[in-house]
Design goal:
Blueprint lengths: L12 H19 L1 H38 L5 H15 L3 H27 L11 H26 L3 H9 L4 H31 L11 H12 L2 H33 L6
Length: about 270
């Protein structure tokens, strides 16, 4: 779809205003002892948030793409199984899914592992040996894989079937057709929603704080409970999330512009 006339030439005044506000807030943080102390303590939370987001998002993309391909399979059973997974997972709130995987799925998985380990002569493990951090990563992966599957499916369906048939008539295998014809075109279609979901996952990663995982939100709660300076503490928490989400949004927009320039501004 072509952008509206002059849309790409609009000067980003919103970004200038946001940058000015952000610069002022960072100056306040760096020039105030309390703010600096809160920021220093939250840096570990930034690392955990980024780790959870990146690992869960990459894993969810891989599973989502597999589900999208399965939903277009020639086999009815495979299509129905993929549809079943997508609809069930999308119908469960992420917070509920997080708690379910952390406190229901994980203990059951550990019990199943121990049964297999006993048969194989391996050492058993305890449920506490399954870190809450990785339970949270699995939960976010499962939750977002269903949403990303629908994005991938829509992108794959947007590719003209005539091009697929032409590639196959030239002797390209199904894999080569997908790699060189289908996915490059589908990627241009799905890039904006993929970027939106990445930004959404950064924000939804704050849900892992309910498990006690030391992300930005959890550390913010601990710090505020210790110094009783909720205003200053949550100002820094909000500023860190805004910095990450806006940076990612700008990065995705820049990638979209780069792809448009490479294809001469054509989306079809």
């Amino acid at each position: 779809m072509q952008p509206a006339p002059g849309q790409d030439n609009d000067f980003p005044w919103w970004l200038v205003a946001l940058g000015a506000i952000g610069a002022w807030l960072f100056w306040e943080v760096l020039s105030d002892g309390l703010y600096r102390d809160v920021l220093a303590k939250l840096m570990l939370g930034v690392q955990i948030t980024l780790l959870v987001t990146l690992v869960a998002y990459v894993s969810a993309c891989a599973i989502g793409l597999a589900l999208a391909l399965a939903s277009r399979s020639r086999y009815l059973a495979v299509r129905q199984a993929a549809r079943f997974y997508i609809e069930v997972v999308r119908g469960i709130p992420i917070l509920v899914l997080l708690l379910y995987i952390a406190f229901v799925f994980a203990p059951v998985a550990v019990e199943g592992w121990n049964l297999a380990a006993e048969a194989l002569g391996l050492d058993p493990i305890r449920a506490r040996d399954f870190p809450l951090l990785w339970r949270a990563v699995i939960a976010l992966t499962v939750a977002y894989s269903a949403f990303l599957a629908e994005i991938f499916r829509a992108g794959l369906q947007a590719v003209d079937k005539g091009q697929i048939e032409a590639a196959q008539s030239l002797g390209l295998s199904r894999w080569m057709t997908f790699r060189h014809v289908v996915f490059p075109q589908a990627f241009r279609v799905i890039l904006p929603p993929l970027g939106n979901d990445l930004v959404a996952m950064v924000k939804d990663s704050s849900l892992v704080s309910v498990l006690g995982v030391s992300d930005i939100t959890q550390l913010g709660k601990v710090i505020a409970a210790g110094n009783f300076r909720y205003f200053e503490t949550y100002n820094v928490v909000a500023l860190l999330y805004l910095t990450m989400t806006i940076s990612l949004s700008l990065l995705v927009r820049q990638l979209e512009r780069h792809l448009r320039r490479r294809t001469g501004g054509r989306d079809g």
